[in-house]
Amino acid sequence: MAFSPGFGRVGGARAMVRVPGADRVARSASAPSGWAGALPVECAPLESASASNVWERAKSPALRRYCDRLASSAAKLAGGGAGEADEAERLAEEADHALPGHAPPAVLRGRALARLGQWRDALAAFEVAQSLDPHALEEPEALFAWGRALGRAGRAADAEAAFHALLPRVASLPLAERGPAEIDAALLAAGRGTKGIDEAIAILREARHDAEDSLQTVALLGLALAFDRADQRDEARLALASAVHLDPRPLLAEAPARGVLDDVSAPYEADALAAIALERSDPRAAREAWSSYVAGPGGKGPWADNARAHVSRAGRGTP
Predict the structure, then answer these.
(1) pLDDT tens string for the chain (319 positions)?
(2) Are 217 and 243 in contact, with CB atoms under 8 Å apart?
(3) How far apart are CA 240 and CA 223, in angstroms?
(4) Least crowded by CB within 10 Å, which of 18, 143, 172, 276?
(5) d(Cα 25, Cα 244) in Å, to the nearest integer?
(6) CA angle in degrees (0–180, nearest 5) for 73-75-78
């Protein structure tokens, strides 16, 4: 896949959102433990000072506290859960208080808030970071959280641009985040209708390998649905043959699936994913799911006619 970063428009004001590129990403071997990405430039003097040079380190207690808190916050985020994210946010705030006016604390705070599902606050933190440093959001971990926050704020074009910058480097994300990132990006691409469906298919081909556990089934169902929408029905059947042969609705209601299906283009996609899976095993349930899709927001979206065609075929008893 080849994706190129771009610019997104904010609202109707044509304000430009700078989307980071891939050319400046470099992970520093001297970065503090747990810090994802290049060492913050303001911490470099401490790392280059000799460990035995106590006087050199003692001259900058605020800087030492700042850098220690940044490293600890990043380590908490690398650990995973919501409790760790709460602590990561607190540590990022302490770093900012120790040495105000730098972008890394705002980046870490945004990532922590995104982990907690506090999307509006996360987006505000990322915007602060970007105002302090135009390159602040170039690391894959930040791009992932920023793209999700943009998508959940309804800024689909900006979210897509962020994911376009991320996808060539998605392998740099922790394994548990690669599948969600790709599924999010694919849903956003599919939200553009026929103009984005080929891109969605390409991304979902990768997601079916990278996604873990229940999200692998979501990726397979998403791929089948994308093939169907592209009028590639044989490919859709092959994708479905690899998916779980059970009613997918309980799985789609679980937290991992909900975590990707609440994106800007996807609150109603669960109905379509369930419907495409149920067509052969439970045609009546499939028709109900397609009808639910048409009756909801999906009935006003770019794939409404595709769903109505499925309702019509189900009414004739053909999948």
Answers:
(1) 433 333 232 233 323 344 444 333 333 333 443 454 556 888 876 655 444 455 455 558 889 899 999 999 999 998 776 679 999 999 999 999 999 999 999 999 999 999 999 999 999 999 999 999 999 999 999 999 999 999 988 898 999 999 999 999 999 999 999 999 999 999 999 999 999 999 999 999 999 999 998 899 999 999 999 999 999 999 999 999 887 667 899 998 888 888 888 755 566 799 999 999 999 889 999 999 999 999 998 999 999 999 999 999 876 666 5
(2) yes
(3) 8
(4) 18
(5) 38
(6) 115
* CB atoms inside a 10 Å sphere around CB 30: 11
Q: Are 122 and 92 in contact (CB under 8 A)?
A: no
* Structural contact between residues 191 and 301, judged by C-beta atoms closer than 8 angstroms: yes
The full 3-state SS of 4-23, as one line of letters, equals CCCEEEECCCCEEEECCCCC
Residue 9 φ then ψ, to 5° = -100, 140
Q: Is the pTM of this model over 0.90?
A: no
Most distant pair of Cα atoms in the chain: their distance: 83
Single-letter amino acid, residue 265? S
Q: Which CATH number fits domain 1-6+19-173: 2.40.50.140, 3.40.1080.10, 3.90.940.10, 1.25.40.10?
A: 1.25.40.10
Residues contacting 215, CB < 8 A, separation 6+: 179, 180, 183, 207, 256, 257, 260
Q: Look at the block and give the residue holding tokens 């509006």.
A: 120
**Cα 123 from chain centroid (whole Å):** 13
CA-based radius of gyration for the chain? 22
